[in-house]
Amino acid sequence: MHNRRKRRLGQLGGGLLLLALLALVLDRLFPLPPAPQYSPLVLAQDGSVLHAYLNPTQKWRMKTELPEITPALQTAIIAKEDRYFRYHLGVNPLALVQAAGRNLLGHGRTTGASTITMQVARLLEPKERTFGNKLLEMLRATQLEAHLSKAEILQLYLNLVPYGSNIEGVKSAALLYFQQPPHYLSLAQTVTLAIIPNRPAGLVLGKHNAQILGERNRWLRYFGQEKLFPTQDIANALLEPLEARRHAAPTLAPHLARRLVQARPGQALIPSTLRPATQAKAEDLARNYVRRLATRGISQAAVLVVNNHTHAVEAYVGSADFGDLGSSGQVDGVRAVRSPGSTLKPLLYGLALDRGLLTPKTVLPDVPTNFQGFRPENFDKKCQGEVTMERALTYSLNIPAVRVLAEVGVDNLTTTLRQAGFRQVGRDAPRLGLSTILGGCGATLEELTGLYSALANGGKYSPLALTSQQISRPSTRLLSPAAAYLLTDILAQRTRPDLPMDAASSRHLPRIAWKTGTSYGRRDAWSIGYNKDYTIGVWVGNFSGQGSPALTGADVASPLLFDLFNALAYNNSNEWFAPPASLDFRLVCAETGLVPGEHCPNQLMDYYLPGASASHRCQHQQEVLLAADGTFSYCRACAPAAGYRRALYPNVLPEVLAYREAQGLPTRRLPPHNPACRLVRGTTADAPEAAPLLAITSPAGHAEYLLDAADQQLLLTCAAGAEVRQVYWYVNDQFVRAAPATERVFFRPPTGEVKISCADDHGRNVDVRVLVRHF
What we know:
The protein has 21 helices and 27 strands. 33% of the residues lie in helices and 18% in strands. The chain is an alpha+beta fold. It has a five-stranded antiparallel β-sheet with strand order 7-6-14-13-12, with helices on both faces. Strands 21-27-26-23-24 form a five-stranded mixed β-sheet, with no helix packed on it. Keywords: Carboxypeptidase, Glycosyltransferase, Hydrolase, Multifunctional enzyme, Protease, Transferase.
């Protein structure tokens, strides 16, 4: 007994060795055929098919993965096609002898005795059915058995079997006829697909259902007799009707599908992060919404839905209708570079918060201002005089934003945007200026949505993931958690002008933080919002770039944003953002938002960032020494021993004072300085060489400067008396900026003769002239 077992093992080992040698010879003489060309399939997060494409030979040949081949499918195929599949080495000698006898003697059904492996060989290399080609099939089958496992051979067979027309493979048939993947099919549907490959032209689902039903039930009864399936399962399958017909291939997320397929040529299965239900709902909402806008000259919209916890994109709508050629529906609005309007303002204010330049209650001038030739205007062409930072952001005011950008620096803003993946900004950075914050740059919906997702994640940016492999990529901190929270707190306010009409009275207004934007010429309308779970970006406009009077972020983009949040995140938790431990409160002057000084009776609470926020004391009122009749003022040097009085005067910026006077608002100007003062214009009656109270120390008067036009700036500094807190710089009589008296200020001068003036907060003024040349 023991010796017999040894002989059998030896024979088996010899057979395997012979097979290996034969495969080696065949590999040299007949290299394996190339792998089949499959239809590219873009898969959703749950593995279902989002979008399918024809393969290069214009066939529907969708790759069936091993987990999709159910035991029922294996059992049915093997029992019907090749019952000894698991035991032979590619060729079944017994079946060959039986087939030869039947064919020669004419007894029974004529058959070729092809194994599943031999059929795979024929499907890989279709040839005319001759005796010689049959021998080649047998050799190729032996070769395949040496290289592939039985599971892989069965998988290859199920991917290649014909189902009529241009449909090949079980997965293609399952999706196109039953709209289900193979592993979701019932036993009756599985057996239906198992019987068609032998007669793909005569048994066409949707045309010959009655014949197919009879054939299916015949095989079901046979499988029942062979005890291959439980009796009850067979009984249920026999009762199941056959209502199959050909359906269109899945076409969800066409823009993302095309993008992923182009990025991965030749890949059969491309997993994405999209959720089918979310994607379908977003597509429907965008399509129906744009239809309602058609009469207003607006033809397109794009939507991006991002999961804030994973940074995965769950819905990607590149246009309202991919098939709408008249409106350029195949353009991908998610990646189209457009003007971002005001959507970058939250990031700018966040950078200013982290640099200690302001806090939410800091008061900013909102008056007509000339920034070295750039004169921004607010969207409504009006000014409010002075506004807090939070109001400037909530109302999306342009002039305060440009002023803050001048303080933060364009380079600092563009560097942060590059870190957040803004490609066009990165390329254009050397040429960008103060208009960047008003939309004077290029950005995409994908980039902007990623930026706002960073705000939802406490200021930490992570690249958006389109595939599962892209999840958990390294993150970059753009803002502190404290700055991100303050921006969220401001953007979640609902008393604001960009609330859509009638939205305030809606019971379904979602709890989100959001920002709108409208590009110059009303060509682009943006609305981007977020809560703890999702960030959703919406763009509405025309791909042609044509503007529309109705095209604003508030009135056109925000309604779609709210619809999306209500539809996609309505049942999500109501958990909201909590202030980080790095934030604290302090009392500030209600007039300026600064730490209260000695003349600040009106105070209120404000957030601030300990260790970052500036602690300058407020001086919105200055104490002035006046003549008894109030006709002129004294400085400390010329004040008499008696006969004067003290008074408080507003200490506001010159441009704010000029705006108030131009608007007819009540103002109080400081009376002229004592004309008998010994220190007028820096000289005295008795000592002509006395030191001036205000002097420009840089640049030097009457000097000539040769500067690099690309990046070289001129330094402004002054020497002022101890009582001077703030000075105001002018170039060619145009206001540049206000600064502490000791601060070094840089600016880009124009070419030619330049007049530089400096005024202090005591009414003194001095100027110099220089000559500037550029190279």
